[in-house]
């Protein structure tokens, strides 16, 4: 006891006491608010042989998809048969020749052509120049608008910054020469990726190469919705591998098919808004990551196609 004030002596001289109001001890507490948990980094304890176990996002996490214009959908562009362009170009060329003859601007070699009237006294004037300019514009538009459509390829047309349609026809066509053209491959495509980081069910680091079967379904969204739809597809595959666990080398066929189904559904759902159609995302090669090789030294596994 302290002799001066009758208070008990402090056992810990650095302690600090704070008075708590009595009503706070008995008030009704609301449900505790959820506290978001951040990503944790688990270090390796030296001398124990433990491996790093990276934390992955939960399967139900939401990934931000690009915002695509609501009315942006593929539609057929207005084009004409290539014969129309060839005819217009030939007519324009012939008109330029006739306008030059009318103005007396043809070379002297053509002066002696039979059945060609002599107009040597006439000089090029405003009517002759106007006729030559009109014929030249017709010929230039006819030949400049010619395009060849090929099977498995499409043209995405734009005019003054607006989408004007997609051309999927084959053969010689005539397209508005003022429209911009972007060629798109719409065939069924197979893409085998380089080894990407992934993780097994227990968190051990892996390297996985996947085989993706996909195609462009909506050319307008694939070309105008994102800057590069192939780069976006690769990013979606990388994110899917970070969210879906893959069985390590030596696992059964059933576990591989389960991972393939989960990866395919996830990538197909996130690439659909940009006009891509994904048929399968299959782990083609699974191997241990360099930091995990020391603990589990096994050869990589190549799956059968």
Would you give an account of this structure?
The chain has 305 residues and is of the alpha+beta class. Helix content is 28%, strand content 21%. The strands form three sheets. Strands 7, 8, 9, 10 and 11 form a five-stranded antiparallel beta sheet that branches. Strand 8 and strand 9 (205-216) form a beta hairpin. Helix 2 packs antiparallel against helix 3 (126-144) and helix 5 (229-243) packs across helix 6. It is rod-shaped. 22% of the residues are buried.
What share of the residues lie within helices? 25-40%
Rg computed from alpha carbons, rounded to a whole number of angstroms: 37 Å
**Principal-axis shape:** rod-shaped
- Calculate the mean pLDDT score and round it: 76
Pick out the low-confidence regions.
Answer: 22-27, 29-33, 35-46, 48-62, 297-301
Distance between the termini: 84 Å
Task: Figure out the total of helices.
Answer: 6
Helix and strand run: HEHHEEEEEEEEHHHEE
Largest sheet properties? 5 strands, antiparallel
**Beta fraction:** 15-25%
**E-strand count:** 11
Briefly note the structural class of the backbone.
alpha+beta
